[in-house]
Every structure is written in C-alpha cells, then in structure tokens.
C-alpha cells in the first residue's frame, strides 16, 4: 500500500511538471546554490510530499519519508523562494535571512545559458542577462554538458575541466570539446573564459569546426538549408557540406 501511495504522488508530480517547469526548470538535475543551506533537506521535508523552501534561494520537492528530496535553485528571474506560498518569486520575501548571494567572477561568454566551472566539475554557472549565478551539484555528482544536468560521478572522465598550459591560449574542456577555455584572462574566474562552440561544432585546437563522430547526415545548425554528410573512406570518417 505504501508503494502505491508513493507511486501515486510521483505520478502527480510528473503530471504537473509542465506547469511547474516555469518555476524551477532544472528540478531533475539536482541544482543547488553554493550558499550553504541552513537546514538538512530530509529534515525540512520529513514525511511530507510536495514543495517546500529549503532556504531563500532553493526549492525542495519532498517525496515522502523514504526518498531523498529533489533540490533545485530558483531560476534567475525568480531567484527567491517564498516559504509561505512555496513558489519561486521575483521579489524578495519578508524573511530577514534572505541576503543577496555573492556575485561570481565568472565571465559569461554569452548573455544566457549554462556553462561548466573551468576547474571544479561539481559546480556550474547559469548566465542570465550576462550575470553569472554559481551553482553546485549534490555530493557525489558532477555537472555534465551532455544533457546539461548533474550526474553521479562514476569514472574520472565524468569530471570535465579546463587545464591551461604555458604558451597555449585556448584549451578544450577535457570531456566535451564543444566547450573550450580562453586562458590568461585575469579578470575572469581562475583566469579562464569558458566558451561554447556554435551548434554541432567542436573545438579542434584553434577554432570550432564540424567533426564526424559517426556516419550519417547532420543538419547545419547555422544554416538549416544545408547539412553535413559523414561517410567512411578507408579507416577515416570524412564529411562534405
């Protein structure tokens, strides 16, 4: 009977996902702000189901007494968690402990979007109107650019970082070369500006280019009227546009 109740509540939560996504779109990624939480998530939820504020900036979806709550940071345009109404809001609620989080030195290479932390794979950034918000995955998880969410760290390759080398200005993210870092930038976090190649392009040492990973036809994201055709020629995979 307990399992039936739990499944029913989970179904209700899933059914309301579209409506709630505007409030906290990354609920399944386990987003959490760097600011230390005032309370333990399980202690806040207890045996309850539904939404609760963990602190001024983080929302919990409580899943009953036996499951870990799902935690997410409120989105940048509604960054405060209203404890009374249990929703994310744009205006600061009246709670006295709601202080502005510190601004990050991370330099947004695009006004909006998500970017990996250059040296700490458990952290990532959301850029909103050019302002970077520093976020962190739960313990034991890392940020993945494949799927744009937090995943459990199982192997070393799950952790993507950018390691600058002497004499080298541009370096790819270690586990996804669609991102790369511009080194020797003193005004940015860790001296690195993180950049995302456009569309399907991959950083190949000096610039972003199309790279075939398998045979097939792939749309040119910059010009959908064209496509890339990848094909085998001996031991090599080539492409034509």
UniProtKB/TrEMBL annotation:
MF term (GO), any: chitin binding
Entry-linked SMART domains: ChtBD2
Record-linked InterPro entries: Chitin-bd_dom (IPR002557), Chitin-bd_dom_sf (IPR036508)
Signal peptide segment: 1-18
Chitin-binding type-2 domain: residues covered: 105-161
Entry annotated with the keyword Signal: yes
Pfam families, A to Z: CBM_14 (PF01607)
Keywords: Signal
Listed GO CC annotations: extracellular region
Protein name as annotated: Putative peritrophin-like protein
Annotated source species: Lutzomyia longipalpis
């Amino acid at each position: 009977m307990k399992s039936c109740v739990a499944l029913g509540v989970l179904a209700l939560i899933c059914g309301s996902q579209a409506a709630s996504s505007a409030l906290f779109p990354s609920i399944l990624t386990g987003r959490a702000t760097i600011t230390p939480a005032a309370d333990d998530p399980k202690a806040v939820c207890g045996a309850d189901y539904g939404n609760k504020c963990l602190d001024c900036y983080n929302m919990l979806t409580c899943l009953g007494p036996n499951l870990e709550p799902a935690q997410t940071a409120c989105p940048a345009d509604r960054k405060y968690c209203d404890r009374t109404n249990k929703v994310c809001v744009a205006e600061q609620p009246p709670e006295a402990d709601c202080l502005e989080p510190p601004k990050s030195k991370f330099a947004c290479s695009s006004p909006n979007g998500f970017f990996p932390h250059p040296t700490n794979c458990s952290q990532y950034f959301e850029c909103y109107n050019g302002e970077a918000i520093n976020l962190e995955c739960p313990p034991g998880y890392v940020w993945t650019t494949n799927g744009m969410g937090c995943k459990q760290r199982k192997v070393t390759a799950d952790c993507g970082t950018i390691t600058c080398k002497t004499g080298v200005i541009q370096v790819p993210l270690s586990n996804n070369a669609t991102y790369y870092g511009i080194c020797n930038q003193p005004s940015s976090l860790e001296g690195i500006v993180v950049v995302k190649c456009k569309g399907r392009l991959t950083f190949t040492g000096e610039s972003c280019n199309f790279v075939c990973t398998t045979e097939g036809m792939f749309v040119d994201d910059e010009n959908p009227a064209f496509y890339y055709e990848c094909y085998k020629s001996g031991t090599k995979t080539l492409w034509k546009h």
